[in-house]
Description:
The structure holds 2 protein chains of 2 kinds.
Chain A: E1 2-6, E2 9-16, E3 27-30, H1 37-42, H2 46-52, E4 57-60, H3 79-92, E5 98-103, H4 105-116, E6 121-127, H5 149-158, H6 165-176, E7 191-196, H7 205-212, E8 215-219, H8 231-242
Helix pairs in contact in A: 3-4
Chain B: E1 3-9, E2 19-25, E3 32-33, E4 38-43, E5 48-52, E6 57-62, E7 69-71, E8 75-82
Antiparallel strand pairs in B: 1-8, 2-4, 2-7, 3-6, 4-5, 6-8
Amino acid sequence: MSANLVDGVTMHYxxxxxxxxxxxxxxxxLHGFGTDFAMNWRAAxxxxxLEAAGRRVLGPDLRGHGASDKPRESTAYLPECFVAxxxxxxxxxxxxxxxxxxxxxxxxxxxxxxxxxxDRIRRLVLGGFGPRxxxxxxxxxxxxxxxxxxxxxxxxxxxxPGNDAEALAACARGQAARPFREEPAPAGIPLLLxxxxxxxxxxxxxxxxxxxxxxxxxVAGRDHANAVSARGFRQAVLAFLDS
Amino acid sequence: MAQENIxxxxxxxxxGLVEATVxxxxxxxxxxxxxxxxxxxxxxxxxxxxxxxxHTGRVVELHAEEEQAVPVGRPLVTFAVEGAPDxxxxxxxxxxxxxxxxxxxxxxxxxx
Lengths: 243, 112
């Protein structure tokens, strides 16, 4: 499905209701940089697992990604633009509250959404995310040219079929224009951070969890690219959402 | 009911991908797995993927160790399946009987 939400940018999303009846609030899944809902979540087994748990799944392709529109100006990718898209999506679907699960850039945006609309988020999960600057060591005027952690991510995703490398570079610059700040943290929302033990982009996730009064789960042996499909990750999140 | 052993090979996971590395088996030999339940988690150069089981059956053999690379088309797992094999879970099922056409057009010979 798609909706023309904000500034004429059309968002593609999936809205999957469990066949055996719904239990609990819907789960909004926010994918990472350069992927989309199908690749980050569906292929990694999340849609099936949540459906089995009786949860309705809302899965947008964030602007610049998947089947959604891909503007090429960095000002279209400021975190507040994504937040506006997501609030408009919830309003369009008449969904009052969600459990919010992000991965990587999706976690950064989940944090922003929770700050902007805390009353609409029941629980917050940040996957593959830490408080360090994700763009450290990367020249964002020419992403992919260097050897920073983000350069390597950019090179991988810019080559994926369907991606627009120029829109992704604009997206990176838009995100970098608003560096992540730990304070203020979303108040009153139970928080879980999950990351692979070898995820260099999520370093100090445990510290962030501790400073925000959240929980932290480490997925042994996994890195930024392959923690999201780990059974241990899904089980930790499902248990947290149902606790 | 008759049992049949069916071997499932690593499917094509996307354009240009020739192999995948097994990250974690979600089933063990001797276990019964439902069709569409998680079977194995693999990683390609592009992404990490959970492959659902194409059959309901008992797992007879796992053909790859964790951390082992498997070429597309090579055996991944062998199931013992009761009765007729299920349709594969990844592609659509072909209807057993073709539906009757909903509309019929009567052809008339020219009247002149």
